[in-house]
Amino acid sequence: FILLVSFGFYFRSLEKNRTLLSENYVQAKIYLEEGDNQKAVNILKDVIYENDATYSTLSFFLLLNQNLIKDYNELKVLFDHMLKNNKFDKEIKNLIILKKAIFETNFTDEQKMLATIKPLINKETLWKAHALMLAGNYYFSKGEKLKAKDFFSQILRMDNLNKELLEQANYQLKLIKND
After folding, report:
1. 125 phi/psi in degrees, rounded to 5
2. First to last CA, the chain
3. How would DSSP label each residue in the chain?
4. What does the alpha-carbon distance between residue 153 and residue 169 come to, in Å, rounded to a whole number?
5. Closest CA to 105 of 96, 93, 116, 121
6. Which end of the chain is more exposed for a tag (fewer CB within 10 A), N or C?
7. pLDDT 10s per residue in the chain (179 long)?
8. Rounded distance, CA 159 to CA 1, Å?
9. pTM for this structure?
10. Sign of CA dihedral 155, 158, 162, 164
């Protein structure tokens, strides 16, 4: 009996916590609409640190997409915290890793960017072609056309490739060839 009551209390507590997180997320969005960004940022960061795979992710991407935090180091800490402390479906985690790599291309060097996308490039995932495209575009923008060509060519060798990614890789390779 005590065990059943304990489980009931535990699951009810979890549900209350998720309800509170959803209410806080909605409240943060209201603050954003009202122009009170600082209150929204504080709430969203609190939700992120609650380590709920759904609401932490939504809160983080709201911060990121609305450009509410400008400090690269703070954003990097939040990315790392989310990846370390939440239990995501494999492909959701890979998507977050890809978003982190996209974010980092503006702030870090080649080695850090490659280290971030390495897990995506070295295994079969929905996001592998996107990671290769990111690396190819990174090198293309730096004028390193041989490295860019290598990444774009890897995309073309993939099976079951999205038509749009195939077209993008072909287009980039044509640009390299014509240069």
Report:
1. -150, 160
2. 76
3. -HHHHHHHHHHHHHHHHHHHHHHHHHHHHHHHHHT-HHHHHHHHHHHHTTT-HHHHHHHHHHHHHTT----HHHHHHHHHHHHHH----HHHHHHHHHHHHHHHTTTS-HHHHHHHHHHHHSS--TTHHHHHHHHHHHHHHTT-HHHHHHHHHHHHT-SS--HHHHHHHHHHHHHHHH-
4. 7
5. 116
6. N
7. 677 667 767 677 767 878 889 999 999 999 999 999 999 999 999 999 999 989 999 999 999 999 999 898 899 999 999 999 988 889 999 999 999 999 888 887 889 889 999 999 999 999 999 999 999 999 999 999 999 999 999 999 998 888 999 999 999 999 998 86
8. 55
9. 0.80
10. positive
The residue type found at 135 is: A
Token representation of residue 90: 């494999």
Residue 97's identity, in one-letter code, is I
Which two tokens mark 111? 């080695």
Token pair of 114, please?
């490659």
Both tokens of 54, joined, read 């759904």
